[in-house]
């Protein structure tokens, strides 16, 4: 991240002889970028707080296109002089918290001792998906079955969902994470019930009895794991000697993936009110923030 250091020269007193100039340096490289929703519809505020020197910088804006959990088709650009946005640097008499920006009523004991308001500049906001994984117990890089360093073309069950995003890689209605553990001491290899070299989580017929695993769901509740001849016996789908009748069951598992969105905020061409002649840089990178959510798709 580009180091952001402004030298702000603020003329507080001026007489015919001389004036007092306060020189303030501030930086926010090591400070987390935070976000709150504003009071109005589609209003947001990004801010950074440097509690060590009681200062903060904030960017308030209105945009119907922004979401921290949706990708932007293209970067959102906002002009600071559009009447709906503001960039403000402030110093305070005491350390502040996020409540200063996120609460409807700011703390009453906080006093702004210095303030600079941006009167021109362009903000750019971009939200991208930076990480997706199905959390199925198989590392994403290990689901590159053809070894071509492209995870998107490995789709064992042909359901249109690549394995690294598919919680049920073989569409047998048993989650991949539930098909990994074997009963072999000191062996972490994925379970391979029929010992054909294909692990159960990638095979539609785990016991090689000619009946697809999902069709050994005798009670047809979408879960073959609870179907067995008697308590304590192997479930039908793991028992090649079972005599259960085949039923036709469609793939029924919803698919949930963990998705991390990264939002990046930059402002260029900044002009503050007051004396701007000694600014070292008119560009400011607010930096990035990550938001991870679970997204479920009904199959």
Automatic annotation (TrEMBL):
Q: Which domain of life is it from?
A: Bacteria
Query: What PROSITE patterns has UniProt attached to this entry?
Result: EF_HAND_1
Q: Where is the composition biased (Acidic residues)?
A: 139-158, 186-209
Q: Where is this region: Disordered?
A: 139-235
MF terms (GO), sorted A to Z: calcium ion binding
Family annotation (InterPro entries): EF_Hand_1_Ca_BS, TSP_type-3_rpt
Annotated protein name in UniProt: Thrombospondin type 3 repeat-containing protein
Which species is this record about?
A: Aquimarina spongiae
């Amino acid at each position: 991240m580009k180091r952001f250091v402004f030298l702000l020269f603020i003329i507080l007193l001026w007489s015919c002889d001389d004036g007092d100039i306060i020189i303030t340096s501030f930086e926010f490289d090591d400070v987390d970028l935070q976000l709150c929703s504003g009071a109005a519809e589609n209003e947001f505020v990004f801010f950074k707080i440097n509690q060590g020197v009681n200062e903060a910088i904030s960017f308030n804006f209105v945009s119907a296109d922004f979401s921290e959990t949706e990708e932007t088709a293209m970067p959102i650009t906002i002009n600071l002089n559009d009447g709906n946005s503001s960039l403000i640097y402030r110093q305070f008499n005491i350390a502040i918290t996020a409540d200063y920006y996120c609460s409807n009523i700011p703390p009453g004991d906080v006093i702004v001792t210095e303030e600079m308001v941006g009167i021109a500049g362009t903000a750019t906001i971009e939200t991208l998906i930076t990480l997706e994984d199905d959390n199925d117990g198989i590392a994403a890089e290990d689901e590159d079955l053809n070894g071509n360093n492209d995870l998107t073309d490995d789709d064992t069950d042909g359901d249109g969902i690549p394995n690294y995003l598919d919680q049920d890689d073989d569409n047998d209605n048993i989650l991949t994470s539930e098909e990994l553990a074997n009963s072999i001491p000191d062996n972490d290899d994925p379970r391979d019930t029929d010992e054909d070299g294909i692990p159960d989580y990638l095979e539609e017929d785990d016991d090689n009895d000619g009946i697809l695993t999902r069709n050994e769901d005798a009670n047809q509740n979408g879960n073959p794991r609870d179907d067995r001849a008697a308590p304590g016996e192997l479930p039908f789908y793991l028992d090649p000697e079972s005599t259960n009748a085949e039923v036709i069951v469609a793939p029924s598992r919803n698919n949930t993936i963990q998705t991390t969105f990264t939002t990046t905020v930059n402002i260029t061409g900044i002009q503050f009110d007051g004396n701007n002649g000694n600014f070292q840089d008119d560009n400011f990178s607010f930096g990035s923030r990550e938001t991870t959510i679970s997204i479920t798709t009904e199959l």
